[in-house]
Amino acid sequence: MKPQLSIIIPVVNEARHLAGRLQALQALRNCCQLLLVDGESNDDSEKIAKPLVDQVLFSPRGRARQMNFGASQAHAELLLFLHADTHLPDDAVNQIVESVAQGYHWGRFDVSFDSPQAIFKLIAFMMNWRSRLTGIATGDQALFMTRQAFNVINGFPDIELMEDITVCSSLKKLGKPCCLKSKVVTSARRWQEQGIIKTILLMWWLRLRYFLGANPSDLLLRYYRKP
Fold first, then answer.
1. What domain count does the chain have?
2. pTM exceeds 0.85
């Protein structure tokens, strides 16, 4: 039977946390296709993922490339692009299916963080508010779209960073997003490791540079540079 939804999960060296995150998706395997797209990992990501997904795919490293390749192998007419460190809310599949039935071509969830610190509640509120205001979502918000919409915009742009912002700008031309109020829960790990204020300022600076025309490859080097 054809799956309702293909869930495409790009990973690079996620062995440390991958098993628990994929276990959380097992209840969906009766209606969804789980595709993990490995981008040249050198750890045990493939070995861990193999029994927990329908297929492990291999792609050159780069989140956009990995997600595009996953979409090319997907069987469903609805595509969900899920970061490996993001947990879906209950009833996520039904909510996506219903949003498309209502006429939406694409959408995303509200986001929250897996930390009780008050600052992360504020950050999540601002991310969700900004997304509703601009119609632009981040990859952490679990972007979904119809296969038709994905094909019309030619998928994610082959850039090293800001692929989520760019793809949302393209999707907006097809219609406004469905902004689901149910929350995905994403990891606060990077923020905690590199400093919350430093990370906020870095994200703002990277976005500004991107809108001013900076090369995404250069921005990627700064994004992953140790503070």
1. 1
2. yes
